[in-house]
Hints:
- The complex is a heterodimer of chains A (112) and B (111).
- Chain A has strands at residues 4-6, 10-13, 19-21, 23-25, 32-38, 42-49, 56-57, 65-70, 73-78, 87-95, 100-103, 107-111.
- The mean pLDDT of chain A is 93.
- In chain A, the strands form 3 sheets. In chain A, strands 2, 5, 6, 7, 10, 11 and 12 form a 7-stranded mixed β-sheet that branches. In chain A, strands 3-9-8 form a 3-stranded antiparallel β-sheet, with no helix packed on it.
- Chain A starts with a strand and ends with a strand.
- Helix content of chain A is 0%, strand content 54%.
- Chain A is built from no helices and 12 strands.
- By secondary structure, chain B is mainly beta.
- Chain B has strands at residues 4-6, 11-14, 19-25, 32-38, 45-51, 54-58, 61-66, 71-76, 85-92, 100-101, 105-110.
- In chain B, strands 2, 4, 5, 9, 10 and 11 form a 6-stranded mixed β-sheet that branches.
- Chain B is globular, with a radius of gyration of 13 Å.
- The A-B interface holds A 4, 31, 33, 40-43, 45, 48, 50, 58, 90, 92, 95-106, 108 and B 32, 34, 36, 41-46, 49, 51, 88, 90-99, 101-104.
Amino acid sequence: DVKVTQSSRYLVKRTGEKVFLECVQDMDHENMFWYRQDPGLGLRLIYFSYDVKMKEKGDIPEGYSVSREKKERFSLILESASTNQTSMYLCAAGGGYTGELFFGEGSRLTVL
Amino acid sequence: QKEVEQDPGPLSVPEGAIVSLNCTYSNSAFQYFMWYRQYSRKGPELLMYTYSSGNKEDGRFTAQVDKSSKYISLFIRDSQPSDSATYLCAMSVGANSKLTFGKGITLSVRP
């Protein structure tokens, strides 16, 4: 099975700070994804990447950017954190022929 | 109409009950159907995966797809407290396509 590791499980940041969320996968998948999950709103796709240095906007990219310099690593960046970005962030790898995804354990971000 | 609709819940059942979780969808191009289970403070994990219409069984779990009605179901037999989790349906049109998720339903199985 694909293992997806998110470096930080819990973070507390202040409004205006720059925030980096790191994600690493160990199965050589081309596709990686960043979602946020909020009560009542479900999973919403922020950005995804089909290859190194390639990125595409998901459904809610505003306020976020991403970086994929190596195939195994996909970073989510909040340039200037705001309180409405308090959420659970989930990284995933996979897609392939069926679209099946493997998720990390999530990073719970609180912005004060 | 949202692409994927899932009963919002929450759902609470006694141990041993049969549980039925359902999703409807509007995009007839969906070919691959999945159920993910998410325990509290964890990421979702793939529980069941089905291609096109039909049933698939894995232990106490049965996934059912009716493409003519655009309706999928997950049945849990002899439910256990360890089945308490959020269940998300997900579907895709196929190769390298994005998954579209339902919002999830939280199930609680009472001992």
